[in-house]
């Protein structure tokens, strides 16, 4: 028998036949006997494989004839040994195999078949459901299932001859894989016998004294050895291992049960059954394995661990490198793994490419000091460059588009930096392009830079850099995030809790052109990033399990379950206490709707009872882990569906106790000229107009703007974008406060400065959310008490003006005219937390006024409107926008008693300067004295929305509830459904006394008529 040709001149079919004749007992693969690897493995020898290849070659020829044109035949298979056997059989019978992924959409596989002229498809019968959708395409093809493994093993065919010489066959196509398609439609990459020979030729590369080789020879274990990998046959790594390594090398491939999802436990169990030499795994599975019992001890027995598909975390790599060789072969479908030299253990992340294979590290960006790997692929490199064969159009040199950084101390070492196209690869191998998201976010006027990170992580995160040191809140940013998330696939979307707001003291690293240097920027924020992912991991999804003995659920288990389900709705780094209000730390109404759906899904399988009682209102009325835990404890263990909580508890005594324990009586200060004013909540719709009015008052020399938002100054300057304010801006001073904290979270110096200087405090900070319960407004009530205490203990005893709402007395307004006076009845408020908390605040202030003699003004405000619909964020604007989306107009919502926000601000300014309020709080109503019926809005909207139908409010609400995945931009009323339900039950008209307000202010309110409404709608 003729001897097998030398390395680099061999063909796999002839080598397989030669091995079967010379070393028939050599083990090609080990396959599990059952789905439980503990039942052992069956060794498949090269003689077995050669026989099965002959069988399948005759089987193919019987169906399709013998090809001399290397026609492509597609294959979709499971993770078993039949794939490599079919590949060799197709090659013998003159065909080439098109490897199609069962993970691809049917349309992608059809595209690849069309691109390669493939009209025949073979598949494992287990995957026939994946073939059916492909048959529905316009592409005509023949599809047939391949024989079962048992039939192949039992076969006894005659030899199928393959007598080609390497020089004749080297350019013949044998296999077709495809590019990843991360940024575009996958493209087929045709592989020849010549490209496989490049790997085989690496045996011929000269040895370098004292250096370990890290090329294809490492898969040829001296004396034989076993390798386990989870990379599938259609993946380059899997394909090369299951074919080239198993035939050209001395490697035995160990297979896992084909239908088990690989994890650390499965790999450990395989290692207990099979004496392995090496592993080739994605990083996520390496981490799982070493955390398994016995995992680390089993790894120590290996020759090496190779990882691919994503970066390995630094902590895991450092840990492994101390006990074993760990590295990542560099390569791509077009190039195959590139030959390298082994590095020192501490350099496990670095690559040293073999000097015997022509390549260049071409400087890509001098400032970033990044280099692109360019592979020389000319005629003189055809034995060492697979890309010469795989991409003939790239002969000469192939730009990989992969960037590296050079080791400053060891200049031959390079570390992978990233792709030119910035594709992000998560730890599970999923990829996405973050650029569309980043560009969308960076389009915002407040944001200077946006950087999506996530390589080697389970999900992406976002780093933001702002143009000003004063940052917007996450609440302000979230609509932008939602819009930008629509531009990336699911795995690339940024969740609410995965955003890091950059520090003004830590700017993003940039090139001279202004481009963000990704790696350096991420390195600069390494500690923040690590903390973010640790927090995410610690609050990860918790599996709800009943006690095995009692079959009941304890409160601790339910609490963990709730925390893991709800955590996605909260900002990054937020730790939620058992009694902490969700809405005080960033949860919003849209997110509440999403979380309700998540809770319902999570509870399926744990109860046979209906979960329909779980609605957004359930969360609104029980906005803490502790409160929800009690609800679900009763529901899961007793089947008890909670009754509606009517919130009748009076919270006022609690806050009065806080007053009496900290404040001392003071004397009435009498009216004096205002020179220094503080506005708590100055950046909102009304607050910004009030600041504008106060600035124009020449007697006022200092205005303190107290806000929760850190970017209050920038927002204020944007709102006051007029030359007439520019000379007055020196009057403004900004302080950041924290609701619910002593002294409003201010330093002692800042708090003392306010106490010493203020003549008046306007309290205008309140959350405008009609869904929340009183509980969620406790931080605001607490802050109000802090303001009262500041006034009562200050030598200047500044007067307090509290901006309240007419909803605080709404239940009285439908039956009688509400006086401009205290209503000391908790039931007077509209039945919602917003209104009840406002009334509670009024009552607290009234007591403080009587008890401490401080001057108190309470101003109940109606619906305010801006210059146009949509400019105010009100329920009224929400009705207009949502009506356009639904093409429906509600026939009645509420009486029209609007006041322009600019007029309301001037009235507040007037009230501040009016006498009185000492010893007995003064109440004012800002509402239009001449109400109009809702019909005036309906008529205007009908003219604006051609074809829109007018329907009862309840029907309008019903249609709104039917919207799936509502958008805040298109259907803003969706976050106010409970409020509109209340309006549907309300009266046609409400009556409020305005005599005091009219007497204290010179503002003449604009008449509400058709002209007013059309101007507001923008007609």
UniProtKB/TrEMBL annotation:
Segments passing through the bilayer: 227-248
Domain Thioester reductase (TE) intervals: 680-868
SUPFAM superfamilies: Acetyl-CoA synthetase-like, ACP-like, NAD(P)-binding Rossmann-fold domains
One Pfam family, short name: AMP-binding_C_3
Span of domain Carrier: 575-631
Protein species of origin: Xylaria hypoxylon
Any coiled-coil regions, as ranges: none
Protein name, as recorded: Carrier domain-containing protein
Keywords linked to the UniProt accession: Membrane, Phosphopantetheine, Phosphoprotein, Transmembrane, Transmembrane helix
The AMP-dependent synthetase/ligase domain, residue ranges: 38-367
Transmembrane helix as UniProt keyword: yes
């Amino acid at each position: 028998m003729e001897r097998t040709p030398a390395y680099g001149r061999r063909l796999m079919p002839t080598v397989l036949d030669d091995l079967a004749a010379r070393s028939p007992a050599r083990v090609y693969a080990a396959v599990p006997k059952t789905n439980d690897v503990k039942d052992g493995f069956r060794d498949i020898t090269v003689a077995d494989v050669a026989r099965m290849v002959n069988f399948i070659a005759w089987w193919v020829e019987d169906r399709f004839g013998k090809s001399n044109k290397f026609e492509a035949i597609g294959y979709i298979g499971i993770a078993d040994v039949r794939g490599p056997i079919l590949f060799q059989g197709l090659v013998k019978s003159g065909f080439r195999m098109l490897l199609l992924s069962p993970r691809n959409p049917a349309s992608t596989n059809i595209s690849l078949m069309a691109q390669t002229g493939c009209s025949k498809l073979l598949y494992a019968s287990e995957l026939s459901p994946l073939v059916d959708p492909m048959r529905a395409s316009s592409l005509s093809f023949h599809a047939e299932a391949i024989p079962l493994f048992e039939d192949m093993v039992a076969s006894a065919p005659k030899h199928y001859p393959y007598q080609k010489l390497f020089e004749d066959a080297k350019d013949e196509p044998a296999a077709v894989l495809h590019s990843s398609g991360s940024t575009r439609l996958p493209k087929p990459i045709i592989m020849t016998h010549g490209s496989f020979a490049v790997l085989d030729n690496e045996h011929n590369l000269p040895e370098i004294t004292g250096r370990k080789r890290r090329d294809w020879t490492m898969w040829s274990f001296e004396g034989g050895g076993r390798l386990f990998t989870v990379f599938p046959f259609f993946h380059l790594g899997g394909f090369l291992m299951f074919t080239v390594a198993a035939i050209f090398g001395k490697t035995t491939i160990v297979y896992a049960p084909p239908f088990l999802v690989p994890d650390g436990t499965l790999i450990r169990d395989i290692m207990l059954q099979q004496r392995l030499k090496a592993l080739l795994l994605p990083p996520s599975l390496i981490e799982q394995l070493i955390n398994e019992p016995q995992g680390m001890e089993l790894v120590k027995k290996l020759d090496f661990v190779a990882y691919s598909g994503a970066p390995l975390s630094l902590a895991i790599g450092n840990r492994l490198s101390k006990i074993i060789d760990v590295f990542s072969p560099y390569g791509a479908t077009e190039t195959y793994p590139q030959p390298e030299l082994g590095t020192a253990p501490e350099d496990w992340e670095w690559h040293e490419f073999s000097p015997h294979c022509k390549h260049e590290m071409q400087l890509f960006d001098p400032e970033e000091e990044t280099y692109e790997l360019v592979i020389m692929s000319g005629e003189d490199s055809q034995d060492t460059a697979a890309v010469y064969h795989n991409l003939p159009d790239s002969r000469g040199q192939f730009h990989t588009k992969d960037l590296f950084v050079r080791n400053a101390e060891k200049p031959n070492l390079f570390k992978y930096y990233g792709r030119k196209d910035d594709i992000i690869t998560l730890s599970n191998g999923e990829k996405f392009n973050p650029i569309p998201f980043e560009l969308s976010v960076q389009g915002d006027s407040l944001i200077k830079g946006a950087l999506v990170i996530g390589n080697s992580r389970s999900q992406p995160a976002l780093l933001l850099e702002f143009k000003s040191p004063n940052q917007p809140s996450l609440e302000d940013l979230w609509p932008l995030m939602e819009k930008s998330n629509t531009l990336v696939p699911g795995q690339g979307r940024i969740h609410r809790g995965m955003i890091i707001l950059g520090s003004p003291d830590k700017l993003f690293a940039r090139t001279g052109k202004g481009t963000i240097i990704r790696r350096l920027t991420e390195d600069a924020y390494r500690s923040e990033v690590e903390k973010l992912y640790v927090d995410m991991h610690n609050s990860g999804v918790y599996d709800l399990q009943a006690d095995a003995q009692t079959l009941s659920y304890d409160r601790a288990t339910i609490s963990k379950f709730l925390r893991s389900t709800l955590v996605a709705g909260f900002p990054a780094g937020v730790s939620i206490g058992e009694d902490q209000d969700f809405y005080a730390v960033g949860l919003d109404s849209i997110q509440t709707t999403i979380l309700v759906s998540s809770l319902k899904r999570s509870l399926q399988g744990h109860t046979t009872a209906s979960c329909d009682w779980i609605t957004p209102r359930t969360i609104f009325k029980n906005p803490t882990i502790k409160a929800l835990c009690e609800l679900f404890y009763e529901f899961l263990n007793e089947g008890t569906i909670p009754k509606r909580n009517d919130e009748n508890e009076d919270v006022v005594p609690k806050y009065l106790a806080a007053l009496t324990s900290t404040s001392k009586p003071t004397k009435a200060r009498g009216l004096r000229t205002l020179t220094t004013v503080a506005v708590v909540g100055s950046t909102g719709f009304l607050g910004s107009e009030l600041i504008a009015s106060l600035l124009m008052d020449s007697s006022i020399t200092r205005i303190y703007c107290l806000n929760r938002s850190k970017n209050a100054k920038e927002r204020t300057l944007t709102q006051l974008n007029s030359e007439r304010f520019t000379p007055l801006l020196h009057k403004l001073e900004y302080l950041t406060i924290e609701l619910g904290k002593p002294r409003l979270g201010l330093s002692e110096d800042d708090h003392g400065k306010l106490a010493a200087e203020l003549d008046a405090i306007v309290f205008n900070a309140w959350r405008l959310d009609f869904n929340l319960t009183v509980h969620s407004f406790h931080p605001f009530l607490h802050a109000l008490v802090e303001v009262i205490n500041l006034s009562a203990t200050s030598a200047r005893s500044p007067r307090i003006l509290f901006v309240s709402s007419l909803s605080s007395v709404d239940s009285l307004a439908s039956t009688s005219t509400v006086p401009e006076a205290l209503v000391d009845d908790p039931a007077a408020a509209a039945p919602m937390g917003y209104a009840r908390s406002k009334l509670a605040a009024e009552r607290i202030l009234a007591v403080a006024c009587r008890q401490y003699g401080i001057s108190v003004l309470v101003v109940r405000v109606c619906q305010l409107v801006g210059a146009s619909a949509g400019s105010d964020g009100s329920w009224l604007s929400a009705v207009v926008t949502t009506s356009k989306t639904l093409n429906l107009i509600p026939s009645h919502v509420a009486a029209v008693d609007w006041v322009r926000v600019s007029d309301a601000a001037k009235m507040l300014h007037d009230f501040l300067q009016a006498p009185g309020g000492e010893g007995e709080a003064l109440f004012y109503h800002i509402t239009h004295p001449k109400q109009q019926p809702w019909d005036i809005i309906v008529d205007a909207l009908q003219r604006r929305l051609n074809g829109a139908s007018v329907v009862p409010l309840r029907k309008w609400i019903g249609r709104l509830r039917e919207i799936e995945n509502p958008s805040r931009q298109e259907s803003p009323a969706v976050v106010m459904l409970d409020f509109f339900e209340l309006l549907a039950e309300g009266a046609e008209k409400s009556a409020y006394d305005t005599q005091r307000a009219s007497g204290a202010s010179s503002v003449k309110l604009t008449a509400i008529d058709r002209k007013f409404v059309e101007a507001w709608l923008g007609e």
